[in-house]
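To close the section, here is one more complete example, presented without commentary so you can practise reading it yourself. The ligand is KG4.
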Amino acid sequence: MLILGIDTSCDDTSVAVVEDGKKILSNVVSSQIKVHSPYGGIVPELASRKHIEMIWPVTERALNDAGVSLDDITVIAACHGPGLIGSLLVGLCFAKAVALCRDIPLVAVNHLEGHIFAANLQKNPPEPPFLALVVSGGHTSLIRVDGFKKYRELGRTRDDAAGEAYDKVAKLLGLSYPGGPVIDRLSEGTKDELGFPRPMLNEGFDMSFSGLKTAVMLEVKKLGKGKSLSEKDIKRVCASFQEAVVDVLVKKTERALKKEGLKTLVLSGGVAANRRLRERMTEMAKASDINLIIPPVSLCTDNAAMIAAAGLYYYKATIFASEDLTATACLPIGRS
Ligand code: KG4
Ligand code: ZN
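Output:
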């Protein structure tokens, strides 16, 4: 069976064809970085306009790359939230229209579920129960997974997502968008010299990154004394900020694994591309005998193959989307 996955939850237009929810035949992602980089962050109105322009060409390419046509598609899996409402509506309405015209069943997938089930697209998929840390530009959530539709969000960010904090810190340092990869690169070989705060480190599983961003802003003012920072100072700020974020993510994850008695961890979302986070998580997993699963970067960042992978479970459970289904910007996991 062939699943056509569609994701337009944020700033990437993505369509994929996945066989049996596991084998990727195509996974096309059209990035909007060029559109948003002059603003140092995503402009929602521009994002939805670009999705409208790209959704059909990206779908055509995904079908061509897979060597199939719409007639071969068994089911369409579209993301209906959480995300930017205008962006979500483009992908979902497109999916509904195609499903209706071509008489193809439609399933609606939670974007976070997609990030979790991205781990099924590789050789050794995780066996529930496991813990998932989904950490991206829009989300930072620790989720206990006991099976399909059996999710419990143990903790989440109360303000900025970790990736959002990376992007905002990069902006205030005058670096390019998206900030995560740039800060990752500039941090290499530099130590945590500035000792930024680790917000909420010892309080439960919720997280907060907006105070850390303010601490960085104050430090930048202090170091620069009204002038722009030297290259050396930019690197010191990047490395110290990154270490604070990674510290919080690793320690909260480690505590959640222990408290829940879980031995498998899935790390997903755009920030999972971060080299320091991967390194520290790997060290922690080794020390605690945890089976750590990190999908390849192309499946950690937003993509439609992960939506198709999660869509398989809806199809098998015959949970189909109704014709009046709409997109939802704030859609906690487990309430799809
Ligand atoms: O999952 P994703 O593609 O889209 C969202 O759902 O947000 O994640 C994008 C986020 C951006 O905030 C970007 O700065 C961050 O992931 N990111 C990184 C790295 N690569 C991407 N953050 C830290 N280190 C990286 N290497
Ligand atoms: Zn995402």
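Once you have examined the tokens, check your reading against these statements. The pocket of zinc ion (ligand 2) is lined by residues 111, 115, 136, 138, 269, 302 (CB under 6 Å). DSSP finds eleven helices and ten strands in the chain.
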